[in-house]
């Protein structure tokens, strides 16, 4: 159930991003409002008597993840401008090639069917997100940005995996962990915007505030449900494969029917392979 809710929240997050792009507003102020919204939601949920239970590896992990969240988004936004959305998303989702071996190294045990499903999922992601026509990934700067997207995304997933392997979080700990991650991301982003003088006055525009709040609600819950799913439903290597593949399948379907984005033959093939890989992984996990 938590995995399904995480997938739906992440999908909603992508739809809101796509809708917000129509207004051509600056990305960083929206994301900072989004991080502030996530922090406020988290502090609303936290019960005062449980704050002292938040300790151990979760404290430094929340700081590291807060930094990585802001760095990752900023890098992702620059990469979209330089290399295009498809390539940026492709390299971000292919973080599986690093996070899955990391999870296996830390104790995940997979069957042959699960290894096969993960491999097929990576192929499907490539086929679905492979840019049409001439690729923009020619210059060394673009290659550096694409690799940066892959590495930061993998670092975020690996930090979550390491935290999950080293501690067991209950509902309150998951809420606190999520809240502190977004609080750190908000502080880092706000300081960055002040130092670099990046349109901080636009934080007070109603469109920026409203879109940031709309993003913050599913964003907070996507991480919260992800933590609960990692703790009780799937091992990390299986969870991240299911999450990334499901998001790409559902996003492609929504884009096709709602935004009239055409799908090539390779993308339809990728969708079929992704669905098969999800079925294979899920069935292998059940039996």
**Alpha-carbon distance between the two ends:** 18 Å
Structural class: mainly alpha
Give the number of helices. 11
Helix content: over 70%
Report the portion of residues in β strands: under 5%
Principal-axis shape = globular
What is the ordering of alpha helices and beta strands? HHHHHHHHHHH
Low-confidence stretches: none
Main sheet makeup: none
Mean model confidence by pLDDT: 84
What's the count of strands?
A: 0
Rounded Rg: 19 Å
Please give a quick description of this structure:
With 287 residues, this protein is mainly α. It is built from eleven helices and no strands.
Write structural notes for this entry.
With 287 residues, the protein is an all-alpha fold. Helix content is 79%, strand content 0%. It is built from eleven helices and no strands. The protein is globular and about 55 Å long. The relative contact order is 0.21. The model has no long low-confidence stretch (mean pLDDT 84).
Looking at this protein, list some descriptive labels.
11 helices, mainly alpha, 287 residues, globular
What is the topological layout?
Blueprint (H helix, E strand, L loop, with lengths): L1 H19 L6 H19 L12 H26 L1 H9 L2 H10 L6 H18 L10 H27 L4 H26 L9 H27 L3 H23 L6 H22 L1
């Amino acid at each position: 159930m938590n995995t399904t809710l995480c997938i739906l929240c992440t999908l909603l997050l992508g739809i809101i991003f796509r809708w917000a792009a129509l207004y051509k507003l600056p990305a960083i102020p929206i994301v900072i409002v989004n991080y502030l919204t996530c922090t406020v939601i988290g502090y609303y949920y936290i019960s005062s008597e449980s704050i002292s239970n938040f300790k151990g590896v979760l404290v430094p992990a929340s700081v590291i993840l807060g930094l990585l969240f802001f760095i990752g988004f900023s890098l992702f936004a620059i990469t979209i401008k330089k290399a295009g959305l498809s390539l940026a998303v492709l390299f971000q989702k292919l973080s599986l090639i690093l996070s899955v071996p990391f999870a296996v190294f830390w104790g995940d045990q997979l069957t042959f069917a699960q290894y096969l499903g993960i491999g097929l999922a990576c192929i499907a992601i490539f086929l679905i997100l492979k840019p049409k026509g001439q690729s923009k990934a020619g210059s060394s700067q673009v290659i550096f940005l694409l690799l940066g997207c892959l590495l930061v995304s993998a670092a975020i997933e690996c930090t979550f995996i390491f935290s999950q392997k080293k501690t067991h979080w209950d509902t309150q700990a998951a809420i606190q962990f999520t809240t502190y991650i977004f609080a750190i991301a908000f502080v880092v982003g706000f300081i960055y915007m002040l130092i670099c003088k990046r349109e901080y006055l636009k934080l007070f525009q109603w469109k920026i505030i409203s879109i940031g709040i709309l993003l913050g609600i599913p964003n907070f819950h996507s991480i919260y449900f992800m933590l609960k799913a990692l703790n009780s439903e799937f091992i990390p290597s299986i969870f991240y494969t299911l999450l990334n593949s499901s998001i790409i399948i559902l996003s492609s379907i929504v884009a096709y029917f709602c935004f009239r984005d055409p799908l090539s033959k390779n993308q339809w093939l990728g969708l079929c392979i992704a669905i098969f890989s999800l079925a294979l992984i899920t069935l292998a996990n059940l039996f």
